[in-house]
Amino acid sequence: MTVIACDGVSIAADGMACCGQEIVSLSVRKIRVAGNAVYALAGTAALFDALVKWHQSGADPNEGPKKVSDEMEWGLAVITAETGRPVLHRFSSKCPYPEYYPFPFADGVCNQFAIGAMGRGATAEEAVRVACESSVWAGGDIQVVDIAEALGLNPKLAAAE
């Protein structure tokens, strides 16, 4: 399962991967920087490369990965730079159109823990740690990506509200 948290300065994700009720890895990388975007995936890990490629080629809703089972759910957070600031859109297996989300943002099965933590002042990394400590569905290594660095933004402008 997954928890992803983004406070607008950084984005963080846990490293747990499950197959059914079995933990198969604690070091999965759920965040990638590719082209001019930062991507984070909640859901079927095998789709990550295909979803990044789909987004980079225009994110046509009719061309996205096809759902082959009810278990094949995905949510793709995409952070890009607009007017020098990071902007987050989410695409999903339920809605393959861009949905804008303000910061703080969290996704995955434990998102409510992360949102609550960030609402009390936690960083994205701290919010993922809280979610991992609060749920059996998140854990392992925590990956953190600095958004301004990944997108080549001025850190002070990127963090401004």
Overview of this protein structure:
The chain has 161 residues and is of the alpha+beta class. It contains five helices and eleven strands, in the order E-E-E-E-E-E-H-E-E-E-E-H-H-E-H-H. The strands form three sheets. A five-stranded antiparallel sheet has the order 5-6-7-8-9. The protein starts with a strand and ends with a helix.
- The gross shape turns out to be globular
Strand order of the largest sheet: 5-6-7-8-9
* Beta-strand residue fraction: 25-35%
Number of helices: 5
Order of helices and strands: EEEEEEHEEEEHHEHH
Please state the CA-atom Rg, rounded to the nearest Å.
15 Å
* Residue windows where pLDDT falls under 50 for at least 5 positions: none
The biggest beta sheet, please?
A: 5 strands, antiparallel
Given helix and strand content, the structural type is alpha+beta
Task: Chart the SSEs and their pairings.
Elements: E1 3-6, E2 10-13, E3 17-19, E4 22-25, E5 31-34, E6 37-43, H1 48-56, E7 74-82, E8 85-92, E9 99-101, E10 105-108, H2 111-119, H3 124-134, E11 143-146, H4 147-151, H5 155-159
Antiparallel strand pairs: 1-2, 1-10, 2-11, 3-4, 5-6, 6-7, 7-8, 8-9
Helix pairs in contact: 2-3
Structure, briefly:
By secondary structure, the chain is α+β, with helices and mostly antiparallel strands. The chain has helices at 48-56, 111-119, 124-134, 147-151, 155-159, and strands spanning 3-6, 10-13, 17-19, 22-25, 31-34, 37-43, 74-82, 85-92, 99-101, 105-108, 143-146. Helix 2 packs across helix 3.
